[in-house]
Input
Amino acid sequence: MNLREIVQQNRTITLAQLKEDGQLILEIQKILSAWGLYPAGQWWDGDWGSRTQNGLNEFCQIKGIADTSKGVIDKAIAEALLDPNVAELRLKTAKDRNKFFEMLLLSEKGFSEGNLRIRDRQIENSPYNKDIPTYPNRLLQKTDNVQIVSFGEEIALSNPTRTVTFSPYPKVGIKPNIDTSTLNFLHPDIKEACVCVGSFVNGEIRANWLGKNALDSVQFWSATKIIAILNLICKINKSFINCDIDDCVVRASGSTEGLPFHELAIDLVSYRAKYGSSNSLGLMFKRFETYSGLENWLKQITGNTSLSFTGRYGENALFNSPQLYDRKAKRIVAQPAPEEARGDNLVSAYDLTRLISMLGWHYHLPSAARLPNAQWYSLESLARAMGTDRARYIDIAIERLGLQNVIKDPVIISKVGWGASDARNRYEITYTALVQLIDRRPNATGNPSKLRTFAMTLRAAKAFNPRDIDREAKEMDARIAAEVTEIMRRIVMEELA
Output
């Protein structure tokens, strides 16, 4: 017996019958998971227990129908479970962040620090894998104020009621004003965070910046690896404006054989290791500029002079003396820089949010606010590579909020980082991302779709005494997912901007 048969035959299944029907229980468990009322993964076991019972009771309460306290599954309950329109209800029920965190943590059972459920979900298991080639064109989209609208110049938010005015995106080297109180809702395990919400005004992106310790200089692990690539793109397009980095290969100095830039960028972002490890590529891309030169460039871009960026990534470079060679123009477009003494990679959540927003919003920023000299036909290669990030926190957020079937043209570009810090005696996960999507749910202005776009960076950290790396890692994986989901929920519900 399945739910559809219960509806079609107007059947009533007693609790005793249900407990003997593992397939029906499994179907119910999967649906409750989709509604965010039951954990996923190995908890789909087809066994009736208190979690399934409580999840179904809560579901019935939310839907306003009789629950299973009488020990039955009837037509009304089956029809409600089969209802595909989950978005509005999920956006309301998803407020219970602690409950969601606990469910995520339960789903981490059987995983370990080396293979976490969400951080290591992999792009191949994402429903947005096939969308990546379309990301460059989607990032060129803007509102038309008829079929697709945006927040506009200002928006009246709810919960609590307040008005947010979007400011012009700052010029290169100028730090924006960052609201330091609105992100206080984030869990204490989120040590630093920065969120930048975008809105179209007269065809250009305006922004509202929010932060929690957003300017503190700390270690963001592998999330910083995109910095050197952005610097490289700016450098080659300054000297060779028509050079498309997709036409380039990276090779050892003196060699005539090279590896495709885009494929190396995918390896760096996703840890795929087809051509090289992420750490060896992270250092290799830093070798196109001196450490001090790269640090100064970053300071000049973000306006944050407190950062330092002269560190390495724990492995030797794939090519210590790399060249970037343009196969189309048949010329070398970038050479290795002199080596210098190494230091630390200590940047802020703001720095990374600034960079990833400059990447994703490049086409919609005034020239004085863009990455200097960078051309979109080179930047889009990195955007596509960042679509392959192994961490799928935004995927989880979209699932939790029930948005899968009401959004159009999603873009998810991101970079995860992690590590166990001996100096700070704790495990850390960092995550920077830019999200853009068209929300097709009806809204207060009638029925136009709304383009939503935002960038964010978070660092989660946890320590136990005695140390338990697996436990710390699993908690931080679940914590990042829960907090990213709450940020996204508030933006979609227009409680945050």
